[in-house]
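WARN  no MSA supplied for this record, continuing single-sequence
INFO  ligand: manganese (II) ion
INFO  echoing inputs
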Amino acid sequence: MWYDLAPVGRFSATGGYRRFAFGAAELECRAWFAAEARRRGMAMEADGNGNLWAWWGDPAAGNAVVTGSHLDSVPDGGAFDGPLGVVSGFAAIDLLRASGDVPVRPVGVAAFTEEEGGRFGIACLGSRLLTGAVDPAVAAALTDADGNRLDETMAAAGSDPGLLGPDPDRLSRIAVYVELHIEQGRAQVDMDAPVAVGSAIWPHGRWRMEFRGRADHAGTTRLDDRADPMLTYANTVLAARKKARLAGAVATVGRVFCEPNGTNAIPSRVLGWLDARAEDRAALDRVVEELETATLQRAERDGTEVTVTRESFSPEVAFDAALRDRLAGVLGGVPVLATGAGHDAGILAAAIPTAMLFVRNPTGVSHSPAESAEMSDCIAGVHALADVLRELAC
Ligand code: GLV
Ligand code: MN
Ligand code: MN
Ligand code: MN
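INFO  complex generated
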C-alpha cells in the first residue's frame, strides 16, 4: 500500500506532500482507497460530506467499529500524517482475516475530508460536517486561495454539494471510532514507546488577521507618514510568541499574504493566520484576548486597521476514559498521552466513544517533509490496531 501511495502528490523540490482536498493528488488518493476496498471485497461508499468508508461486514447492521484517518496533507506535509491511519486500518483488517478472526459487528475504514483545512481553511471539515459542528451553508461557500468554492469543487469531483451536512443516521450506526496516527512530537521517543494510547487533545483554534494600511512609495514616503500594515503584523507575530510563552501555550503564524507584494511598495494589506493552542482553555483564551488588545493598540500607533476573525475552534477533548483504559489494557499497559495536534477523532468524540493510538516518530517532526516513522514501529502500530479491533469487534 505504501509503495502505491508514496508518489501521489509528492512535490519533488521539497519531498513534501501536497494533497489538498479534491485536488488532483487527493482524488488519486481517493481512487487508491476505492481500489484497496475493492481488492478486499469491502463495500465502499462516499458520504454527502465527501468522507470515504470501506466496510468489512454490513454497515446497515449498526453497532460498527470504525478506524481510519485522512488522506489530505498540509502544504509540503509528511508521508504519515493521515495516510498511516488509513493504511494501518486496511492492514489490520488483513491481519485479522489472515488469523481467521470473524467480526460480530461491522468494521469500517474511513478517510475524512479536508482534515488539515489546507485548502478551505477549516480543519476536520468532513468530520465537523458529519457531526453537525459546521453549518453546511457556511462550508459550501468556503473558498480556497484561488477563489474556488467548496460546493463547486465538490460538484466537479462528482459529489453532490446538496448532501453536505449532518448525518445522524450514519453516526447512529457507529458504536466506536479508533484513529491511529503518527505521533507529532517527541513524547514516544523520550519514553522509548513504539505505540501509545491517546488521552486528550488540547483546545486549539485558528484566527484570520487582516491588517489594512496604505500602499505608497518605498523611497519617497517619510517613515512618519506611513500607514504600514506590515509593521502591525510583525509586532503581532512577536507578541504572539511572547504571550504564548508566558502562558505556557503555543502560537504560530504559518500562513501570510501581502498585497501588493512589491519590494518597493509599502503594503496596502497583510493577511496572516494565527494558530494558537494550550493544554488549559483559560490560558488559550487569555493569550488570544491579550494578543488582540496588543494588536489594536499597535494598529493605532501605526495608523493601520486590524480585523481578527475566529475561523475555527476546537475545545479540549478528553477521549472516552473506559475505552482508553480498555485499549491500554489490551496493549499491555502502553503509555497514555495527550496531544496538541487536532484530529477527526477529536470531533467525533462529541458524538461517539472515541480513542486514538499513536505510532512513534523518531524525528518528532510533523507537518514537514522531515516527518518520519520506522517500518518496525508502523508494523507494531498495525498489530496494536488489529488487537484493538479484535477486542472491540470479534
Ligand atoms: C492538524 O493536523 C492540526 O493539528 O492542525
Ligand atoms: Mn496534520
Ligand atoms: Mn493528521
Ligand atoms: Mn490533524
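The chain has two domains: 1-201+316-393, 204-313.
INFO  checksum written, moving to next record
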